[in-house]
Structure formats: structure tokens, C-alpha cells
């Protein structure tokens, strides 16, 4: 029997077994592909397209003087912008070290929008109201819990809400940072680093391949389509001799059927006279 795959999140510092590669393995693109294939499923990687943003997700912002991660405090039931060590390692090499840093992203198949649910506590959805107030205290999904991830050229991500505004990091009184959702343009405050797990990135690739395969095998029968749905010659249907015979026969049978019905109706009415 196949061994079940563990769904436990692995954090930085956890020991994992990695597959060895032969020293004489090819270099260049082929080597990169082998490395990607041999990556541990729980390895935290950068998405290369918006469709790959799914599953357990780590969201960070390069704030100054200290970068931050977007956390959820289940005890206080609120979003916390937690400061990260500035120097080591570099921000894009980070991985979550605690469950409060992880959000679970889900999406409806084929939809560009996503939902961000807390990875700890009872599972609340990240939402934004029309005033730009961001919270994570709702247990049900609606329009205000939908976000559209926008992958930027530098690999960072902006999150657009249903009001077509963007999620941002805002400084309030006393230097405290909080999330807002009323920015109309994407600037420094609206740009986030996002990391996902390798297995979900591969899952998105497989889905894309399947869609492309279906598109390739779908062939339109133009002759049949034109014959069924198009009318030629000023609105007159152009048909073959055999088709004309079939039409003539059908009309003749239709007339006979009508005549029989008329006769039966007449006999029935005579009977009651």
C-alpha cells in the first residue's frame, strides 16, 4: 500500500531528506527542470503567475526600517504586522516559522479571484469594506472577501479588492502599521512578497497543461457547422439532391398526417351531431 503524504506544514529549520543528483547531470535549462522536479513538496517558493497563488501562503512586506509579515493573532482575533529580522536571511529567501504567519488561499476553478483564510484559529477570511477597513473576522465568504492577485514584473504581488482598490501597509498615529484597502494605485506600500509551497505551484502547472491539451484536441467541423447553422443564397438553404428528396418526402408525409387528423375530427363532430 502506498504511504500517505503528510500534510503537515514544514517550517524553516526542519530537517528534510533531499534527493541526490548525479554529478554528471546536464547543466542549463534541463538541470533547472530537474532541480524543480526534485524539490520537496513543502519547500517555499516564489509564484511565477497569479494562477499559482494557492494553498498555504506566506505574505511579507519590505517595510522600513524592518520588513514585516502579515500574521493573524488567534488569541486577540486580529491581524498583526509582525517585524522580521532585517539582515538574515534576505527577505525573498524567508519561510514561515510559525503557523500564525500562514494564510490558506483558495479559489474557484477558472476564477481570477482568491480568498485568504487564516491558517490558525477557526479559519476567518481576510475582508475589506467600502471604507478600506481590512479585517479577518468573518467566517463566510462574500464579495468583500474576494481578492484579485496581480503579479508585478519584479515578482512582487498586489492584491485588488472588489472595490478595485489595493491592499496596502499604512502608518497610523504613533508609528503603528496596519493594513488598509483603499489605495487606488500600486506603489511601494501596495507591493508584497508572496511565497507558496512547491507542490501547489506544480499543481497549477498540471492544470494549465490539461487545459492546453483539451484546446489542442478540440477541432471544429466547419463543413458540418456551416451546413447546420448557416443559410446561403439570400437566406435560402443550399442542400444536396438527397437532402431535397428527404425534405419532399417529409412534406408529403406531413400533408398525409394532417389530412388524417382533419378526417378524424370531421367524423367525430358528425357523430355528435
Automatic annotation (TrEMBL):
Cellular component annotations (GO), alphabetically ordered: catalytic step 2 spliceosome; nucleolus
Origin superkingdom: Eukaryota
Pfam families: FRG1 (PF06229)
Coiled coil location: none
Protein localization: Nucleus, Nucleolus
Region (Disordered): 1-45
The keyword Nucleus is annotated on this UniProt entry: yes
Xref: SUPFAM superfamilies: Actin-crosslinking proteins (SSF50405)
Stated name of the protein: Protein FRG1
Species per Swiss-Prot/TrEMBL record: Pisolithus tinctorius Marx 270
